[in-house]
Design brief:
By secondary structure, the protein is mostly helical. Helix content is 57%, strand content 6%. The longest helix has 27 residues, at 165-191. The radius of gyration is 17 Å and the shape is globular.
């Protein structure tokens, strides 16, 4: 997969997070997970292991107190996304969908629960199937910017916990666990259905949908 463009606006809120998102989406991780005869159970086991790993990693990064702790927010996100993208790839493998896994599906799985408005037109449900839109780099960049702003707003609130190293670390770890479980749930819902891919969109964003969208949380 080709590297995606870097957002060249250092003054825009969330630009660092948006660039980090584009970096993660530039390469889908490989998986050793083969198709399972009981994909739901296998995916659940993958999700539980990833959630525990994300909680431990995020909690450890949140231990430094005060301003030093604030500097760990972006590394915490990097670590959590690395774990979650691998988890999504492994869940796709359990459902036999590795070959079809795309950056559009990845961004949908990672951010549907936390930035629903930004990804609402990327994947839609049509009856018993899911329709995935292939996005141009320009459209994906716009989506990453929206997600970056949303995550920045949430991160400002979580930064307060850095002043309470032990209690804050427990809270950050618990949130990482919850977030990873939500990502896994979205991935499982997606991969257990048939998936159709729509041709790439232009740079102005997806056209109006002729079908109903999923009810997002």
């Amino acid at each position: 997969m080709d590297n995606l463009p870097v957002i060249p606006d250092p003054d825009q809120p969330g630009h660092k997070i948006a660039n980090a998102i584009l970096k993660f989406l530039g390469k889908i991780p490989e998986t050793k997970q083969s198709e399972s005869i009981t994909p739901h159970q296998s995916a659940q086991a993958i999700a539980n292991a990833a959630a525990a790993k994300a909680a431990a990693a995020a909690g450890a990064l949140a231990l430094p107190p005060g301003p030093i702790g604030w500097l760990t927010i972006l590394p915490e996100l990097h670590t959590m996304w690395k774990i979650q993208t691998q988890m999504v790839a492994d869940i796709a493998g359990a459902y036999g969908k590795t070959a079809a896994l795309s950056r559009e599906q990845m961004v949908y799985c990672l951010f549907r629960h936390g930035a629903a408005m930004a990804v609402r037109d990327v994947v839609v449900r049509v009856g018993d199937r899911y329709l995935v839109r292939q996005l141009s780099p320009k459209v994906l960049e716009k989506i990453a910017k929206k997600i970056g702003v949303k995550i920045t707003q949430k991160s400002l609130g979580k930064a307060v916990s850095r002043w309470l190293p032990v209690v804050g670390a427990l809270g950050v770890g618990a949130y990482a666990f919850y977030d990873t479980v939500k990502v896994a749930k979205t991935a499982m819902e997606l991969f257990e259905h048939d998936i159709d891919v729509e041709p790439p969109t232009g740079g102005k964003g997806p056209p109006p949908l002729p079908t109903r969208t999923l009810e997002l949380e």
